[in-house]
Amino acid sequence: MHLMRLLMAVVGFAGLILAAGYAVMAFVAILAWRTRRAFIDAPRLPPVTVLKPLCGAEPGLDENLRSFCRQGYPEFQLVFGVRDPCDPAIAVVQRLAGEFPLMSIDLVVSPQLHGSNFKVNNLINMVARARYDVLVMADSDTRVGPDYLASVVPPLLEGNVGLVTCIYRSTPTARLWSRIGAMYVNEWYVPSVLLAWLFGHQGYVSGQTLCIRRDTLHAAGGLAAIADQLPEDYRLGERVRGLGLRIVLSHYMVEAEHHEPDIESLGRHEIRWMRTTRLLRPRSFRWLFITFSLPLATVCLNLTTVEAVGPVVAWALFGTTAAARLMLHLVHRPRKGLALLSDLWLLPVRDLLLCWAWFRAFSGTHITWRGQEFDVGVDGVMRPLT
């Protein structure tokens, strides 16, 4: 019996070390990324076509799209696309076209299908209208500053770079579930991405920004090659790397509007994201709990109490984990104009929901995306459920 308690204590200490180590390194990764050197501007910037697939009048859509009209960039074209001729996003685009009459703004309305991923379908229908050979694809909820294009395009001018992408900061609407959902991105997902970046991983790709040359896209099989894929951005990155080209994570951080009207919407989104992670990393997914630093540390602290060995060390490790987790919560908030401590009470809720989504992702292959139900195979192909 004593041996069993000792074993539990050893497991507890090991878990505390992992939790503290991960939380501290994730915070260090954020600091390292924020202090990295920005790419030096190119002497001559090429003309760019920005492709913005739209679906519905999302919260903040007007300002999100307007931010792309205000670019301090020499020459660029904006192409917006919708599938439904009755989509309310059309009115937003038409209003912007009237507000910026000298800007090159095109709207593509086409229900033509090329695969089961509706966003990629939209992009395929839009890309034929692109005038320029440098393409920037950005999601509808993305909001940027006037220096966005001037920041993300220059790295693409290096001969061995095939794709430039960005991480993003999630900006919630006022609803409670939106704030909890934004914490998922800002306090768990992005720190995980940046920790991998800190250790040299270059496989991250986000649909919030995909900056690519037309000839590279063609050599990678075009958008049609990923038209059935759930992780379409990741698959595009795989194909670009397969050409022997690098993916660059831009120093620029975009904003993404995050809206969750209720807990059901939040659950659907996070289970979809977790199942996508399991699809991309089936072997390592089971070890993802190591990144749930505070829940892991709480469980492991209780394991160490069964054997009165090193209680001071155990509490020190737990305190380190809690402090680092708190910093992951606070580090982005002043930049977003949020009250520093207003959502502190949501930390336990956020971390428990993260664990719940992870457990749920182990069973089932169904996802919900924009009201449509799909089954996703191990190959990443989305198959509509009728």
Notes on the protein architecture:
This protein is of the alpha/beta class and 386 residues long. The protein is 45% helix and 17% strand. The protein has twelve helices and eleven strands. The chain has helices spanning 2-34, 61-69, 89-99, 118-127, 148-152, 176-198, 214-219, 232-242, 263-280, 293-304, 311-330, 347-361, and strands at residues 48-53, 76-82, 104-109, 134-137, 142-143, 161-172, 210-213, 246-258, 366-369, 372-376, 382-384. Strands 3-2-1-4-7-6-8-5 form an eight-stranded mixed beta sheet, sandwiched between helices. It has a three-stranded antiparallel beta sheet with strand order 9-10-11. The termini are far apart.
SSE order and pairing:
Blueprint: H1 2-34, E1 48-53, H2 61-69, E2 76-82, H3 89-99, E3 104-109, H4 118-127, E4 134-137, E5 142-143, H5 148-152, E6 161-172, H6 176-198, E7 210-213, H7 214-219, H8 232-242, E8 246-258, H9 263-280, H10 293-304, H11 311-330, H12 347-361, E9 366-369, E10 372-376, E11 382-384
Parallel strand pairs: 1-2, 1-4, 2-3, 6-8
Antiparallel strand pairs: 4-7, 5-8, 6-7, 9-10, 10-11
Helix pairs in contact: 1-6, 1-10, 1-11, 2-3, 9-12, 10-11
